Amino acid sequence: MGKKIAIDGPAGAGKSTIARLVAGKLSFIYVDTGAMYRAIALYFIRQGADGSDTGMIKEKCREAEVSIRYENQEQEVYLNGERVTPFLRTGEVSRMASCCSAVAEVRSHLLDLQRGLAREYNVVMDGRDIGTTILPDAEVKIFLTASVEVRAKRRYLELLEKGEPCDLEQIKAEISERDERDRTRAASPLVKAEDAILVDSSDMTIDETANKILEIVLEQMGCK
Ligand code: DC
């Protein structure tokens, strides 16, 4: 079993940026579990399903075989043998992933993949239920959050930079809606593990947040 660092929290709290930075500093593998749910979502979008087709998602999710490879230290996601990493970060996939991830069968389908990676490598794994369900024995657990306003603003600036048309109020509404769905679902809802350390990044830069988390990690792993 490798060393395990779990970083959970709501959408837009900066988990992936921070987890990638922390993994790089420690020479651990960064595992983005959201991308796995996004791959399942892409599978169902391509099948013509929508988020309310829960019966179909439940029944057919095992037809979507998701695997992960590390190429140049970056996680690449494969769906039934096709590299789909470039197609996972769209609004449509985000919405569908939120619906698919509420289905218990989808969660158990991805559980072995996530635990398997943690057995094989030293990992920084980010998601919603890593500290509570996937790796309850992780050496370090962080719950990273930020206010809805700050998370929406960050997403807005990110889209502006990419030249994509966007509306701050709409982004805020979408983030609140996803938060609500992630927090209130019956299967592995987004909650802070009792033994996770809460970090609120609302008033911190990326570097400040990464340094704070790195400090916690080194302390918890007894390196300080
Ligand atoms: O982190 P993200 O935005 O890429 O995640 C996409 C969706 O998947 C999001 O709605 C939450 C869900 N998810 C989850 O339920 N459990 C995880 N471990 C990771 C993501």
Q: What is the architecture at the second tier of CATH?
A: 3-Layer(aba) Sandwich
What is the CATH superfamily? Answer: P-loop containing nucleotide triphosphate hydrolases
The number of helical segments is 9
CATH class: Alpha Beta
Bound molecules: 2'-deoxycytidine-5'-monophosphate
Record field, number of beta strands: 8
Number of domains: 1
How many strands, which pairing sense, and closed or not: the largest β-sheet?
5 strands, parallel
Layout of SSEs?
Elements: E1 4-8, H1 15-26, E2 29-32, H2 33-46, H3 54-60, E3 66-71, E4 74-79, E5 82-83, H4 91-100, H5 104-120, E6 123-127, H6 130-134, E7 140-145, H7 148-161, H8 168-184, E8 197-200, H9 206-220
Parallel strand pairs: 1-6, 1-7, 2-6, 7-8
Antiparallel strand pairs: 3-4, 4-5
Bound molecules: 2'-deoxycytidine-5'-monophosphate.
2'-deoxycytidine-5'-monophosphate is lined by residues 11, 33-34, 37-38, 97-98, 101, 127-130, 178, 182.
